Amino acid sequence: MATESLQFRIATPDDAEQIQQLVQAAFRTADSRPGWTGLIELASNFRIEVQEVMDKIVNPGNVVLICLDGSNTIVASIEVAKRGDCGRLSMIAVDDRYQRGGVGRRVLAYAEDYCQQTWGAEKFSLNALSTRKALIEWYMRRGYHKTGETSPFPREKFSNLALPDDMCFVELEKNFS
Fold first, then answer.
1. 130 assigned to some structural domain
2. pLDDT tens digits, residue range 22-35?
3. Beta strands at 86-94 and 74-83: parallel, antiparallel or unpaired
4. Distance, CA of 27 to CA of 12 (rounded, Å)
5. Domain extent at residue 73
6. Worst-scoring range by mean pLDDT, 10-14, 112-116, 129-133, 170-174?
7. The CATH number of the domain where 56 resides is what?
8. What's the whole-model pTM score?
9. Tens digit of pLDDT for each residue in 130-150?
10. What does residue 91 show for φ and ψ, rounded to 5 degrees?
């Protein structure tokens, strides 16, 4: 897919349903790269409701940024929030058809630039599921490093699945300077 015609903007409530579909599909996608999607059973059971996305869009402490292709279709999204001097990044999703083509790098760079320009962010933080080793390595190639901190995985949402005992979110950070 051509990426030269990509445009970015802040999501509006009218975008919530499309973002919900994008995020859900991106998290459920099968990927042949070892450690990229992590646990297939978990990915296939991932759900996010339109109202959850809407809540993120209308929350004054957050901004959901979207990336559109030449036909004005949402192909990627990322949520950013200001936390002191830090830009917190989450809900990063790229349409299957655009993965492995540099869109994720562009979305991440755009979000970092947005946080720097809008809020004066001096560093960035995010987390990734510990089972998604290749994704964590991808973030590390973008300048992020593991902080040594972890946060719990919401096991209660997936009580029907046999999950690894040590599964958690790995906290990552990147300094601007």
1. no
2. 888 777 665 544 44
3. antiparallel
4. 22
5. 7-125
6. 129-133
7. 3.40.630.30
8. 0.86
9. 888 888 999 999 999 999 999
10. 50, 45
